[in-house]
Write a structure and sequence with these properties.
The complex is a heterotrimer of chains A (284), B (103) and C (163).
Chain A lengths: L1 H19 L10 H15 L17 H11 L5 H12 L25 E3 L4 E3 L1 H11 L10 H13 L13 H15 L9 H7 L4 E2 L2 E2 L12 E3 L4 E3 L1 H11 L10 H13 L9 E3 L1
Parallel strand pairs in A: 5-7
Antiparallel strand pairs in A: 1-2, 3-4, 5-6
Helix pairs in contact in A: 4-6, 7-10
Chain B lengths: L4 E7 L3 E8 L21 E8 L2 E8 L8 E7 L6 E8 L4 E7 L2
Antiparallel strand pairs in B: 1-2, 2-5, 3-4, 3-6, 6-7
Chain C lengths: L8 H9 L28 H5 L3 H9 L4 E2 L3 E4 L10 E7 L4 E8 L6 E6 L7 E6 L5 E9 L2 E9 L9
Parallel strand pairs in C: 1-8
Antiparallel strand pairs in C: 2-3, 3-6, 4-5, 4-7, 7-8
The chains are: A mainly alpha (284), B mainly beta (103), C alpha+beta (163).
């Protein structure tokens, strides 16, 4: 009798275990659950950091750095790029149209919605890509993605959205979910000679140092873009940062706005939903 | 051409706080370019602030001042609406000047 | 009082050769100062900026040495987030301040900046400096003809991300 009970108990246990395993294929994706888990990971790891402060990257992690940043923010070095961006944004193309004609709400206060999954194009459209698509549609040459004008324009557009929470949408279109999943996969894949994934530094080692620099947490890491980096002595876009990070981990960088970079930006931005846009930003 | 000088001057009644941010490379002469050639020194040497025809602050700078240099100081007096004149000269003899209103 | 600008080359030449002090731009603080040193007038202290070590730069600028004083407040980070832009500020709890100078001892040329504080200007300045490596930052305050200093070591590191 006892052995029958034991057997039944064991069978029940196995059945119970089987029922909690996902019934779908193991690359099933649940962005809502991802975002919740991602946020919890960081808020648990850094209980004294306010949620909206994560967007300040290393400055939310280290007091000495924070004070230097606050000093510099009194009159920040991206001031000139911001001014230039505002002028550029208003200047009409040769055909008389402006950037305002390409974007909802005249391009003001919309940065927090990018990247969007464009169902007509069937791909993720980042703000940088949208700006160049706007230029091409109006007979203008595209801008370099990494700095100068592109950085100035995105700095201005980010500034008009300062304080607004990231609001990235993943429409029901399966291609959108696939793009999100692609970005997630990129984020967690190790690459390069140093064999780091984005997560190696910005999830596992967030708040700690890589050599002498303090690592920013991945939560809210795109909210401050574009940034003026002291290291660059100038402005850089999201494209610039993805490329240089790949190089610095001794990997082969992709081209700016390649599929994987746009999908990565989509994934990371989505995880930043609810956190305020703080760009343009200043970083070491 | 737009000025290189950006100013934020605010009067609190008794004193006026002045912050200036200037667009200038402040090349030290110690850095090489991508081709390996030295980038020659190019930096602001003297920056002067005047209020009511009186010099209220002079900055004597060397190339160790950071690119796009910043300075903050305060002086007694100055009220909202007053003019503040700022000018600089660099080691090449280039100059720029601007007048800002105290807020 | 009108204080002439220092950009007239003829005037600079005259000042350079002068054994006697010219009192332009000094207001009431003038008379306690040692003669013939650049810090006493509005001329750009070219020689001082050319000096390598901080001792030589201070000598060139002021002709004497400074006494450490807790009335000089030097605010600088423990570890510079980036040696290219280090926010540093100096303020002095002293009457009669005429100049504030800041040196970075391990820089190729120690003198980074020297500020003239006319009467009526608060003896306090904030700026952003370049630091080549870990170094003492020295603040010198000249007040009523005497020199006071404060020193702080600021660490400068190589950036982690391939820099």
């Amino acid at each position: 009798m006892r052995s029958m009970i034991h057997f039944a108990a064991a069978a029940l246990a196995v059945l119970a275990l089987l029922s909690v395993l996902p019934a779908v294929a193991d690359d099933a994706v649940d962005p809502v659950a991802d975002a919740s888990a991602f946020q919890s990971y960081f808020t648990r790891k850094f209980p004294h950091v306010k949620l909206e402060d994560f967007v300040n990257g290393p400055y939310s992690m280290n007091e000495d750095m924070r004070r230097q940043w606050q000093e510099i923010e009194q009159f920040p070095p991206y001031e000139f790029a911001l001014e230039a961006g505002k002028e550029m944004f208003a200047k009409p193309f040769r055909n008389g149209k402006t950037y305002a004609d390409c974007f909802p709400n005249q391009g003001i206060g919309i940065r927090q919605n990018y990247p969007i999954f464009d169902e007509k194009q069937g791909k993720v459209v980042t703000l940088e890509l949208a700006l160049n698509q706007c230029r091409l549609a109006n007979g203008e040459a595209p801008l370099s993605y990494v700095k100068d004008e592109m950085a100035a324009l995105t700095a201005y557009m980010a500034y008009t959205s300062r304080g607004k929470p990231f609001d990235i949408k993943i429409p029901g279109d399966p291609r959108a979910l696939a793009a999100y999943q692609d970005g997630k996969r990129y984020f967690y894949t190790r690459r390069g000679q140093l064999n780091f994934s984005c997560a190696s530094c910005h999830v596992q080692t967030a708040g700690e140092r890589i050599r002498a620099e303090v690592l920013a947490p991945a939560l809210g890491i795109l909210n401050a873009m574009p940034i003026y980096r002291s290291e660059w002595s100038g402005m850089g876009t999201i494209s610039r940062r993805f490329i240089t990070c790949n190089s610095q981990t001794r990997g082969v960088p992709l081209d700016a706005q390649d599929d994987e970079y746009r999908d990565l930006e989509y994934y990371l931005s989505y995880l930043g939903n609810g956190l305020p846009i703080s760009g343009p930003g200043a970083r070491p | 051409m737009a000025s290189t000088i950006r100013v934020r001057a605010a009067s609190s009644g008794e004193t006026t706080e002045v912050q200036a941010l200037i667009q200038h490379p402040m090349d030290s002469g110690y850095v090489k370019d991508a081709q390996g050639a030295i980038i020659p020194p190019h930096f602001i040497q003297q920056l002067t602030f005047e209020h009511d025809d009186k010099t209220v602050f002079v900055a004597n700078w060397g190339p160790a001042v950071a690119k796009d240099p910043y300075v903050k100081f305060s002086f007694k007096g100055g009220k909202k609406g007053d003019d503040l004149k700022i000018s600089w000269v660099d080691n090449k003899g280039d100059t720029d000047t601007t007048t800002a209103k105290i807020q | 009082m009108i204080i002439p600008q220092g950009r007239d080359p003829t005037r600079r030449l005259i000042l350079k050769g002068a054994a006697t002090i010219t009192l332009f731009g000094l207001g009431d603080a003038a008379f306690g100062l040692a003669p013939s040193f650049a810090a006493a007038n509005d001329k750009y202290p070219e020689e001082a900026f050319k000096q390598k070590g901080s001792g030589d730069a201070i000598k060139s600028l002021y002709g004497r040495t400074a006494e450490p004083s807790d009335k000089v407040k030097l605010d600088a980070p423990e570890i510079a987030e980036n040696g290219a832009v280090v926010p540093i500020s100096v303020s002095a709890d002293l009457p009669g301040v005429t100049t504030i100078s800041i040196l970075v001892s391990e820089n190729p040329n120690a003198l980074a900046a020297s500020y003239q504080i006319p009467a009526g200007t608060v003896p306090s300045v904030a700026n952003r400096l370049k630091m080549a490596k870990t170094s003492d930052v020295i603040a010198i305050v000249e007040a009523d003809g005497k020199l006071y200093s404060a020193t702080k070591e600021v660490k400068v590191t190589v950036g982690g991300c391939g820099g």
